[in-house]
Amino acid sequence: MGKLTLFEIQLENPKANYYKGDIINGTIKIQIQVAMPALGLSIRLRGRASAASRSKHGCNVDHYFLDEKQTIWGDASDQVFDSRHSLPAGYHEFKFTNQLNTDDDMPSSFDSRPYCIIFYGIVAQFERPPSKNYTCETGFTYIQTVDVPRPLLREQPSQLRLEQPLNRFLCQFGTVKLSIKADRSGYLPGETMLLNIECENSSNVVLKGIQVALVRRVLASVEGNFYKYYDTIVALESDQPVDRGKTFNLNDESFDIPHIPPAISYRRIIKAEYSVQVTVLVPKAKNLIMRLPITIGSLTTSRPDNFPRGHSIDDVNPVILGDTHGIDAEFFEENEV
User: Fold this and answer.
1) Please, what is the average pLDDT of the chain?
2) pLDDT at position 54, please?
3) Last residue of a domain, which of 142, 171, 188?
4) Do 99 and 178 have their domain in common?
5) Of 156, 148, 100, 287, whose CA–CA distance to 211 is shortest?
6) What is the pLDDT of residue 228?
7) Domain containing 196: what range?
8) Whole-model pTM?
9) How far apart are the C-alpha atoms of 253 and 210, rounded to whole Å?
10) What does the alpha-carbon distance between residue 303 and residue 19 come to, in Å, rounded to a whole number?
11) How far apart are the first and last CA of the chain?
12) Sign (positive/negative) of CA torsion 81, 85, 90, 91?
């Protein structure tokens, strides 16, 4: 950086989850070797939703829904003044305080790169026209207050029971019956979900096993085209084969809900929702997939304290399963386009 040897933002609580109306405190640290003329020092509080297509052309959509500027030192603005301030040589700290919007609840931080991201950050700019401005940035986690009604937390969803013919090489080899049931319809991060799964193999094919996962379906809209893919949040796999005429059972199998964002729906650009996905592994044929939708929120009352503030959102890796023609809570074929 030449004369500027240190330029960084340090938040007072960088690992906190922030909610609407919360106050963000931080410090801008600057170290310069010689006195430096400048218009001033400013910060911008920014929120951005980005979606990218999976095509080779790589189209992107960026939408800034939050962009608030605050001058920290000097007369930082978009105009060039004749008289400029000068920052003396040495080490400097500039404290700042910024309150998040109290009225409009913005979408939760969300990272499912390379296709979708909702990012919140604070950008500091040391403005010194006509010379090049210095810029640094730090991110923070924002959680939308998505209320899960208490009746939904207690209510048991209907048990899904489906029967699917098993076909290979244009021949039918019998049927597979699959059922899923969860102990509740809605959950909060940090809670445990209990699952009961039954797979009855009425075919003459030995099934290779069962995969169970908490998945997030993400819909992204880019220039009028919609793209769908799935993130695997938590997964377990049973390599126990299901023999002909036999039944596989998982009783009260537990899933701990990690600290993930609640369901997201933002301006037809990004939509994210959760479900329990059960995959029946079929040898030399298309796997069978069934999904049970569930609700994940961030609180059950008007206070967001139910969501632990000391934890940051877990990152998950996207697993592209391909678009399907079916609907959730029905069988899907894994390589269907």
Assistant:
1) 78
2) 65
3) 142
4) no
5) 287
6) 82
7) 150-333
8) 0.73
9) 13
10) 10
11) 50
12) negative
Are 110 and 160 members of one domain? no
Question: Given 79, 108, 142, which residue is the final one in a domain?
Answer: 142
pLDDT < 70: residue spans in the chain: 1-2, 54-59, 76-84, 103-104, 149-154, 157-158, 166-172, 299-337
Structure tokens that stand for 113 in this block: 């790169």
Phi, psi of 151 (to 5 degrees): -60, -35
What is the count of structural domains for the chain? 2
Largest CA distance in the chain: 87
Q: Backbone phi, then psi, for 306, in 5-degree steps?
A: -65, -25
pLDDT of residue 43: 94
* HSE, side-chain direction, 13 A CA sphere, residue 108: 25
Query: Are 138 and 201 members of one domain?
Result: no
Distance in angstroms (rounded) separating the CA atoms of residues 247 and 277: 19
Query: Who's near 209: CB < 8 A, 6+ residues apart?
Result: 237, 238, 239, 240, 241, 242, 281
What is the helix (H) or strand (E) element at residue 152, kind and residue range?
A: helix 150-154
